[in-house]
Known about the structure:
It is a single chain. The protein has 659 residues and is an alpha+beta fold. The strands form 4 sheets. Strands 5-4-3-6-2-1-7-8 form an 8-stranded mixed beta sheet. A 5-stranded mixed beta sheet has the order 9-10-13-11-12, sandwiched between helices. The radius of gyration is 28 Å and the shape is globular. The longest helix has 31 residues, at 378-408. It has helices spanning 24-28, 40-55, 93-99, 125-131, 192-205, 229-237, 294-313, 325-329, 357-376, 378-408, 436-445, 475-484, 513-529, 531-535, 567-579, 600-608, 624-636, 641-651; strands at 61-66, 72-76, 133-142, 145-152, 155-164, 173-180, 210-215, 220-224, 247-252, 265-272, 280-284, 287-288, 332-339, 429-434, 451-456, 504-508, 539-542, 547-551, 560-564, 588-591, 615-617. The two termini are 50 Å apart.
Amino acid sequence: MATSSPKTSPAYSEGSIRVLKGLEPVKQRPGMYTRTDNPLHIIQEVLDNAADEALAGHGKKIKVTLHADGSVSVEDDGRGIPFGLHPEEKAPVIELVYTRLHAGGKFDKGAGGAYSFSGGLHGVGVSVTNALSRRLEVTSHREGSAARIVFAGGDVAEPLVVRPLESGERRQGTTVRAWPDAKYFESSALLQAELLHLLRSKAVLMPGVTVSLLNEKTKEQQTWQYKGGLRDYLTQTLNGEPAIPLFEGEGYADKGHDSFAEGEGAAWAVAFTEDGAPVRESYVNLIPTSAHGTHESGLRDGLFNAVKGFIELHSLLPKGVKLLPEDVFVHASYVLSAKVLDPQFQGQIKERLNSRDAVRLVSGFVRPALELWLNQHVDYGRKLAELAIKAAQTRQKAGQKVEKKKGSGVAVLPGKLTDCESRDLSHNEVFLVEGDSAGGSAKMGRDKESQAILPLRGKVLNTWEVERDRLFANTEIHDISVAIGVDPHGPDDTPDLGGLRYGKICILSDADVDGSHIQVLLLTLFFRHFPKLIDAGHVFIARPPLYRIDAPARGKKPAAKFYALDDGELTATLDKLRKDGVREDAWTISRFKGLGEMNAEQLWETTLNPDTRRLLPVRLGDLGFADTENLITRLMGKGEAAARRELMELHGDAVEIDV
């Protein structure tokens, strides 16, 4: 009998290591550097550079043009990008800025630096724009000369040409014209509404600077200039009538500040409304932070402590009412513009500020300013206190609704829940979704007949050591309990599962470390306070993909999209493409930074569609309840740091780290 020879694995040697040069990393993994749903963010990188010039006091005009051929140009009257030779690299600086990752003028934050305050921190911004554009032209007017250089696909196509300025030509500034390469984006069209909002916000944040947009196709031109800054903008965008006049102010550290650098601080405008959806916008060094961040946490902290202090000073809090930050914040609309010397953002597209000190920075200026304002306008302070106390009472009453449910027979469903139409328990599903933006995509992409969506804001409370009668002080946990229709219970209780509204309760969080943390917190909640749901097989974990692979047409096979849950599946997918004859670099790999990056269609086909999704059922396994309880106590208990350390030392090398 013939025996088959063992399979030989591909050789792994020094030649197996590939070093990506220049802008290759961006072209291979564009999703790690920018948004790939449309090219707006790579244009924003150019716009941010123009805004940084204005922020530094070197420009008064920014003009954006949408050309008829699909290209976009951004023109400013700043200092112009230097085009002399770099002293170390011996290449024109203007060329280095557009062809080298981590090259820029934003790193020097000290006194005399080119940019004390800017959004740039990685030095990869406009080089990403260049890498993902078919063609990019840059003209810099500076020091009596004009310099022009042209790139194609990230490489120099027309070398730098410097000429003297002609009579009547503008003296200084930079013009960048980019033709985004459609192959890197799901749609080549810029989102007009987002672009208009972005341009208008730049004008708001830089009073005295004129921002304009010209559309060559429609011949339409729009211009923005806000002399009143944040106040004018918020007044124009509010959805409801303010209950008290707008609270506005600014505060910046002086040279002798003991905690922050000179110039660090914030400007803000806050309105408190009783009706209408709140308007909430924040910026760091003119960069819009749509996913919020620590500067907004500082505003929240400052507002809450000032209002709480006013209420205590005037003895306004009724007996039995406990005030929480959300009670003050629920009625707040605001525009916040922070200046941070060395901002730490989450991800290259800078949607969220992570700088820890920003909480203390913003709160430190907002709180005393509001305390002074409230005590100068006591009537307005009392009105604001009344709004906050009313919100606290409403919240506390809502926390009692679940306990009263059996008596009344009615549960008031949480407003955030988007319910399904069917009442068939075996068919119904509810997805507990991390984040409002992902919740929006899930609502649009779901099957309305059988799938309900409950978005959760932020990290859920660690409930391992929370007493059952204190659970409903937390809004998110209250909403989960009411939505699923089951009261909290223990492992030895016999809860009434007759009110259960969904056969499957699915935890849906990002495929990263933070998403795993949220999974653990929710699983802790269900194991500790809803164990019979796990026993009965009603709890599941949805597994969204971490990667998307776009493959070109191969032979008779058309172009296709593939999704991979993790690195292992990514490797397997790429191996399959190689076997299908796809050239090594012909595919594009995008890494999802979170569920919010998926549109409704992608979320449906990867995570919601029963035919294509991965749902992981949650079971106790062989350990049983008691052993599992001991293990989770070591993992989640507040006083178990030593036990956790021992566990990590024993099993830490078995854990895969997502860096």
